[in-house]
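Quick start: read one record
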Amino acid sequence: MRLFIMEVLRQFRRGLVAFLFIIGHILLHGQVRTYPLKNNQSIHHFLKENPNYSFQSNLKFKFGKKDTLVLPFFDDFSESNLYPDSLRWLNNQVYINNHFPFRPPTINVATFDGLDSKGNPYNKTINKDYSAPGDSLISQPINLKDSAGSSYALSDSMVFSFFYQPNGLGYHLNGEDSLKLWFRAANNLWIKVWSVGGQAATSEFKHVSIPILDVNYLHKGFQFMFTTYTRQVGNANQWHIDYILLDKDRSSIDDSYNDYAIQNVPSPLLKSFTQMPYSHFSEDPNIQIADSVHLRLSNLYKDPKALQIRHQATYNGTTIASTEFINSTKNIGSQTSAVRNLPSYTSFIGLTGNQPIVINRLVEVRENGVANDYKQNDSIFYTQEFDDFYAYDDGTAEQGFGFDQNINPSNIEGQIAYGFDVTKEDTLYAIATYFNEAVFDVSRKRFTYRIWKELSGVGSGTIDDVIYESDELSPTYSSANDWRTFTPHYLDTTLILSPGKYYIGWKQESMYNLNVGWDKNYGYSKTPDKTNQNIYYKTFGSWSNTDLPSGTLMMRPHFGASKEIYASEEKFDIVNNSVEMYPNPAENIVHLSKSFELIRICDIQGKQVLEFWNSSNLDVSSLKEGAYFVFLSDNSKRFNTAKLIIQKR
């Protein structure tokens, strides 16, 4: 009997050890995770700031003449933003962006998700067990019967092609989700010609090529349509479409194109941060400046290409840096992409002016002496800003971050700490947090902000040195300040920080996912597929930064004199993609799709070089080769912006 009892105790101890090991493993690993977003704050803010915006879905005018479109039909979305071009498309449910896809063929894609054109869940429903139609993208009518005095036939070898990617940097699909392509026949019936089911893993963009083999498609009102069927989970279950081309004299087995392009936004000028206060940067700028500027280029040709790149930067209209086209010592393989570097520069040291300091940047790519088919995706304008905060993120959230409420016991507390190396003694007056509206409602949950000078067991830290803790708060959701939804928390005490390492973050008394913005495009040292090593989490026990997802947290410390931040800006009505310029690139004359009251053309320094009044035909023969901004205003005081490329033969 005694031996039996001892064996029972031995087995109990063994089970207890195993149980404690499992519990410890759960608590030490997989404690934090990301969740899908509920809506699209970028679209929310755009519509809030532009209440008069409307997508002109009935627009069927080509250069002022009412007609269907003619071949070729092409859109790689590189000139669109937020919504598709209404000159090519009949609806605007998809989201045009470059932060959700992973390595697209060219910069910008059309993203299909579970959100309507206003960025809200379809049917106002979040239910992973309920599937219904999601986004669609419908083309304008295209004339496939005749053009330029001749009729089309099947022997003209018309081919429809595109690239697609499941998931990308969004939340994963499953087998219940699908993407379908439809063609509209002469009898007005929609015929499904292609479909694919969802998958959990993200793959590279895949090429699809569909020959036109049915005479029923050869009519003046031909259209095509992409549709999705998806679970109703908001800003998730994403498909990305890029580089759509319909043209004749093509081979359906040829998946190459006479094109190369910029694939992503070039890296910041800073080594560790995307932004930082300029006065802090100026303390030791050589330490903060990145060794080089890198960007990814794609080559869609069937042959390797040695591409040249250059960049230019201006501040307050003055050029502060400019390079000639730099030859690459390495080829980019056929139908692939590669990172290419430009030398960094120090000419933004010593700039003066009020914050934010905004440096306008241009990057261009070319193959020496050879022109590709689509010049519009060969250049990109963007900015490097210095405001009063430190940031690792780019301002857009792909997912939400917090503790895993499905794994962790609900009755334990949790803490998140986010490290920043402060370079100058200054007053920390606010912490800005990008709160997502979560699939799980946490709007009434409570937490406190914390600031630590050191963390126990991290670096040389021996204790959790808390130097500030707020009262209990709940998440606040804001749609102010451009694409950002950061909400500021103003410190109720004067906190002057000397140079050194500090941590900002929060403490919560129970387990739930606070759903703070998570940027999937930036991780450690701006590498998207790695984790920011400055993020730590703790339940009980020690701090850890293992098993974190790739990407970075969207919280920012603000320094200097306290001011109102992330407030609504002056409203103005910008209408993107409602005007077409032809030809572009241009040499002598540019035609607009309609007349505008005022047209200004500026160079990349922002200097006006041409001005036109009440015109739709612009004489640009006096302009030198290069890239220009075009600003157009109509009688309704709405403003359009476009990019014009001048190319001399």
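The two ends are 101 Å apart (CA to CA).
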